[in-house]
Structures are given as C-alpha cells and as structure tokens.
Amino acid sequence: xxxxxxxxxxxxxNKVKLALLEKDVPFEEVLVSFGSExxxxxxxxxxxxxxxxxxxxxxxxxxxxxYIEARWPTPALIPADPWQAAKVREVITYCDLHVxxxxxxxxxxxxxxxxxxxxxxxxxxxxxxxxxxxxxxxAKFAPYAAGDTFTMADCxxxxxxxxxxxxxxxxxxxxxxxxxxxxxxxxxxxIEARPTAQKVAADRKADQARAASKAKA
Length: 217
What we know:
By secondary structure, this protein is α+β, with helices and mostly antiparallel strands. About 60% of the residues lie in helices and about 10% in strands.
C-alpha cells in the first residue's frame, strides 16, 4: 500500500492527500513532524510530503500528484485534451510558485510568532499583489480553479490560496486575494461540499487543535 509521509498542517501534504482521496486510492498516512531529522534519504531536502511506493520513494508534491494521475488515471484529474491539460498545469504553477511561495515569506510572522522587517513586508506585499493579479488571469473559477470540472488544479488551489489570503491579512493588514477580486471563501465553500475536502479539512483542524493544546501545555 502506498504510504504518504508528512502532516496535515502542511498545505502541500494536503494537496497530495486530496488527490489520493479523490481517486479513492488506498494509502497509509505516516506522521513526519515538522523539522524532524532523518528523512533526507527519502526526501533530499528533508521536505514533506513524500510517498513510498513499491518502486521506492518520491518527493515534491507536483511530481507526486502527476505520478498518482498516471498510476491511477480514473477518475481523471487532468483533461485528456493536451491544451486543456496544459492550462490546468499552468494554474497549478501560478498557484504554487507565484502565489503560495511568495506568500510563504510572510508565514513566520503570520503563523509562528516571528517579526519581519517593514521593508521586507512591503517588498513581499508588492510582489504578492502583482502575482495574485497574474494568477487571476490564468485561473477560471468557473466554478472550479481551471474551469467547470474539478481537476488537479483544485487540489493545489484549495489548500494554498486561503493561506496566502490569511497571511497577507495578518501581516499586511489586508486580504490581498480578496482585494484582487477573487472570492476565495466562496470557492473554498464549493470545494468543501466534497466529502474528500471535508476529510482533509477535518484532519487539518484536528491537528491545529492538538498543536494549540500542546503549545499551551
């Protein structure tokens, strides 16, 4: 059975988990705590998620979901048409690399009690405004991220776009995703009508509660 390593507070872990649940692939979750050592032989940079298959270990969330799509093609999370498939991957790239990775620079202050220099925040804010506007041009939200069908793009956008919105609100004083005219809350509500997303959200919230309880102890 495929094993998924990581933890439910990781958006990229949840990106892979949602894809597996959508395809009804049997898998075992293996908890790997944040910052734990000893996983570099499985994930060279020590990042989660990574998976264990009969062929060995595989890391990087997009490589993993592409493997899942190829290994278990039904139900499809990528359109059969080459152009439409490329457009789905375009949305994923903009979300992961240009929105989430940019917003991630704010996470230390937004979520972990850190303090960032004001000039740094202003630079990231400017980049994020630009990148979210570009993302809005390639995403469809009609009603799903890449069009009228749930795709692999939704596995990425659902778990990452709300983080960018929340981080920008907490650090920059404004939800930059909503300010760009993206109704991300309505989109999340749409995705969470799916039992698979409900499972991902419930597990994430349970982990958040456990982490908060542990921090108070």
